[in-house]
Amino acid sequence: DSEITEKAHAPGVKKPRKRRPIMDVKSIECESEPDEADPAKTIFKFYLNPLLIPTAQQKGIDFKHELVYTQSFVKHTEKLFLDALRGHVWRTASIRDAKLRVHARFFFPYPQGFPKSQKTGMDYCVGRGDGDNYWKGTGDSFSRAGVWTDDRQIVDLRVQKFYTDARPRVEVEVSAAEDPG
User: Fold this and answer.
1) How many CB atoms lie within 10 A of CB 15?
2) Which of 28, 72, 130, 161 has a CA-to-CA distance to 171 between 20 and 30 Å?
3) Which of 107, 92, 70 is nearest to 143 (CA)?
4) Which tens digits make up the pLDDT trace of 70-116?
5) Residue 2 — pLDDT band, cuts 50, 70, 90?
6) Sign (positive/negative) of CA torsion 136, 137, 139, 140?
C-alpha cells in the first residue's frame, strides 16, 4: 500500500524508507448534503483515495515502554478530516445526541491490471484491507469534529468497500436510527 523510495544498496547507505503518501496531502475536499427523502440524513463526501487513510493497525507500539502512540501520519490524517469537516458539522446538529445509523462507503480506484471486461463501474473491493479498520480512523475524526457526541451512539453501522471508475472517495451517511420495536 505504501510506496518505497528507490535508493541504491551499498555499504554505508541507509535502507530505503517507506514513504507515507498521506503526508503529501495538504487538504481533503469535503461536500455535505441532506438526503432529499430524509432531511435528517446527511451525506458527507470526502475526495481522497481511501488507500491513503491509515488503518487502525497503524498505531505505533513501543514494546520497551509498553506504550501505544499515534504516529505523525495518523495525526496528519485526523487533522485533514477535522479541517474538512469543520464547515459541515452544523448539518447534524438536530441528531447530535440521538441514536445513530451510519453507512460508510469507501471507493477505491481499480487496481492496475484489473480486466476491463470485468469492470462494471462499481464492483465490491475485497483486496484492500479490512473495512472496519478504514472506518475506525474516519469515525474517530467524526467524533472529534463533533458530528456526534460519542461514537457509542452509533447503533447501526454499515461499512462497504468498492472499486470505482469515478473519483476515489469516502462517503459517510449519518442519520437518526429508528427504534427496532
Assistant:
1) 8
2) 72
3) 92
4) 677 778 888 888 888 988 988 888 888 899 999 999 999 988 888 88
5) very low
6) positive
